[in-house]
Amino acid sequence: MTDRETPGRGRTPKAREIEPAAPESFGLTQVWWGDGKGKTTATLGMAFRAAGHGYRVHVLQFMKGGADSVEDVRGEYNAIAAMPGVSYENLGHYGWHAMNDGTEERDHEAEASAGFERAQRLVEAADEAELSTPFEHDADPEAGVHMLVLDEILYAADRGLVDPESVLELIDDKPDDLELVLSGSHTRPAYLIDAADLVTNVRKEKHPIEAGQRARKGTEY
Known about the structure:
One of its GO terms (biological process) is cobalamin biosynthetic process. This is Cob(I)alamin adenosyltransferase. Keywords: Transferase. By secondary structure, the chain is α/β, with parallel strands linked by helices. The protein has a domain of 150 residues: Rossmann fold, CATH 3.40.50.300. Helices cover 28% and strands 13% of the residues. A 6-stranded parallel beta sheet has the order 3-2-4-5-1-6, sandwiched between helices. α2 links the parallel β2 and β3.
């Protein structure tokens, strides 16, 4: 037994002004996959938590489509725009690859390729930056980020739009202090299990889509 006490010694945490800061123990590779709802939700929640401590976060979405009930705006983009320290890019377009939804397959392929090249550049930029120092909230992500979220990259890899071996190389190339978060895929990414530090399977037990519920504004987009 130790004499350690809980942080704050029982005091209720309160919000503080967000000032640029640098994390003390970032550097893991996280993988979020599964057939359940919540992979992007979880990773974006973590991005907001990191930004709340003043760390610089960038979210790169590879493809973020949906049914015809999804509007051409996503709530997370508006929230990110209002949150200091988080930025985003979407390198895909509405619609899903191989889903016969009216989008062009060659466009998906070109955008996934461009997205991966962008991810490589951001990892290279992080390697060139000093990640033990704070970054201004509105700094260009090419100046360096503490956390890089590659949303739906695993889905792109599943579809053959991104080479899984290239994803492994990206992990291998990342600087030690960069927290790299990969999400997507209903299929277990066996090729990533040994390379990742954290692997979470978001499992579905029940989903309203099975009862005919369409995507809802504020929960699915």
